[in-house]
Amino acid sequence: MNQPSSLHSLFHTPEKGLFISFEGAEGSGKSTQIQKLQKHFESLSLPCLLLREPGGTSFGEKLRAAILSQDSKLHPMAETFVFLASRAQLLEEKILPHLAQGGVVLLDRYIDSTLVYQALARQESIEKIWTLHQFAPLNLLPHRTFYLDISLEVSLERQMKRGQNKDYFESQSNEFQAQLLKGYRTLASLYPERIKTIQGTQSVEDVFRDILQELPKL
Ligand code: Z5A
Fold it and tell me: What's the CATH superfamily of 18-213?
């Protein structure tokens, strides 16, 4: 089950620009680090677009609101197609045009979230998810993916501190959340060239230092 997909050769990275995605459990610090990285690129006068999934387009934000407010269980394939629809539109409307102009795209969650949340965390094969991504524009991989690794305890503690109403994914069991972390670690070991694991339990500044060290060259 946990093999790098044979479909991987059908995927490509952008020829121009820099495409970076961030992954991790709830509260892993993605938004915090993405904002710091955006400032870093802007200080270098590089046009930098910060986006999130699901969302980032007007259609995607409607899908985001729909899935996060869902109050009964969805079939994993129903979840998957919501994320794919949001992703296809985001690529077409925002990501591809910005990269074509040589810009930097920083994306909060991407394909790896689907591989983990909709497959690995449910002990399902990732092959089906790769298969669904093999057609353009979905067959685009980031140049670099940062996985911010935290423990289940830290994730739950940060969620609790925030104290908002729980959304569809935050309401999943602790067991599911533990499987997510396991899934991310499996994925990072399958694709070590692209996915760099960063210790997300360090201070904000130390996490950022580690990210800067693993940035690909533009
Ligand atoms: N989902 C999916 O199932 N399949 C898919 O394909 C996609 C998504 C694309 C979107 O959630 C949900 O959709 C997601 C998976 C699912 N659900 N979950 N879980 P979202 O966008 O609403 O939530 P999120 O992506 O998990 O983001 P988040 O909770 O806002 O976490 P974050 O951005 O990684 O963390 P943060 O906001 O930067 O930090 C969280 C808190 O920790 C905050 O108070 C910070 O001040 C604090 N923090 C951050 N860094 C540190 C350090 N280093 N030390 C101490 N405290 C820190």
Answer: P-loop containing nucleotide triphosphate hydrolases (3.40.50.300)
